[in-house]
Design goal:
single chain; alpha/beta; TIM Barrel; eight-stranded parallel sheet; globular; binds zinc ion; amino-acid biosynthesis; BHMT-like; transferase; methyltransferase
Length: 331
């Protein structure tokens, strides 16, 4: 059952985790922080709109997360798709270039961060990695279905594979360290992803990250156990976990995931606020503060999470607080 598909991808993630001292820290919400820096993301492309209008802002937010202590930058390609760019009038080639650009911006941010520290003679010994984000078909639809997993009749595995195939290839060719399949709402899309990883022979470690609204199922109602098993069976998957989910559900979810896999577990919850898919806004006052969020971190570590960060509505302050808690835990 456990560790059915240990392989190079899992080994690579484990080496990075070890090099970081036992836990890798992910960044926090990218879209959230772009908005905090003045970007207007009210667009079907969401954060990927900044690839067109303000790439410098993306680089700045990546740098802010590195300054806060993140080991992994997740690129601005979550809602960037060839189909989405084409519907804005871009050619196929231009659309592919925009995907490539999302990875290049994060690689540039890493280079600048390392250079700045080298100039100040401040050694950076922890790994800094770039994970190319792939959001779900539902994220492309921008109609809230990434939080329901309900794709109606379009939702066949072959359709989803065709939808994601070229995007995956282009992002992999851009040279990231990891591929991040994020906010996966149903098991069909997870199955499509693992088949694409094999068929396209992607040799960059990937992670599969699901989202849940109840702590037992992912948002479509499919069981977390079943979804984790799909990820576990694929040797090209280096880590599996949960993102964009309220912190209060994470403890139970990690325990479920651990029952069916030995792969490293990643968790990057949102702040606990609820997203209203119809109104396209976060419902405030249901969330937890940075302090509360971070009070969970030690528990998640004890549960066995190896990669920890934040998703929507978390900020560089959240990441700084996570990093501080982890350092205290190790002293
Ligand atoms: Zn999120």
């Amino acid at each position: 059952m456990v560790g059915t598909a240990a392989g190079a991808a899992e080994g690579a993630v484990r080496r990075w985790v070890d090099a970081a001292g036992g836990r890798l820290v992910l960044d926090g919400g990218l879209a959230t922080e772009l908005e905090a820096n003045g970007a207007d993301l009210n667009d079907p492309l969401w954060s990927a709109k900044c690839l067109l209008s303000s790439p410098h802002l993306i680089r700045k937010v990546h740098m802010d997360y590195l300054e806060a202590g993140a080991n992994i930058l997740i690129t601005a390609s979550y809602q960037a798709t060839i189909q989405g760019f084409e519907s804005k009038g871009f050619s196929k080639e231009q659309s592919e270039n925009l995907l490539t650009k999302s990875v290049e911006i994060a690689l540039e941010a890493r280079e600048m961060f390392l250079k700045e520290h080298l100039e100040k003679s401040i050694p950076i010994q922890h790994p800094i990695l770039v994970a190319a984000s792939i959001g779900s078909y539902g994220a492309y639809l921008a109609d809230g279905s990434e939080y329901s997993g309900d794709y109606g009749e379009a939702g066949t595995k072959e359709f989803l594979k065709d939808f994601h195939r070229r995007r995956l290839q282009v992002l992999a060719e851009a040279g990231p360290d990891l591929i991040a399949f994020e906010t996966i709402p149903n098991k069909l899309e997870a199955q499509a992803y693992v088949e694409l990883l094999e068929e396209c022979n992607i040799n960059i470690p990937a992670w599969l990250s699901f989202n849940s609204k109840d702590g037992v199922h992912i948002v479509s109602g499919d069981s977390v156990i079943e979804c984790t098993t799909i990820a576990d069976k694929c040797a090209k998957v280096g880590a599996v976990g949960i993102n964009c989910t309220p912190p209060r559900f994470i403890h139970g979810l990690i325990l479920s995931i651990r029952k069916v896999t030995d792969k490293p577990i990643l968790i990057y919850p949102n702040s606990g606020e609820r997203y209203d898919g119809e109104k396209k806004e976060w419902v405030e006052s249901t969330g937890v503060s940075d302090g509360d969020f971070v009070s969970y971190v030690n528990e998640w570590c004890k549960d066995g999470a190896a990669l920890i960060g934040g998703c929507c509505r978390t900020t560089p302050n959240t990441i700084r607080a996570i990093q501080r808690t982890l350092n205290q835990g190790f002293n």
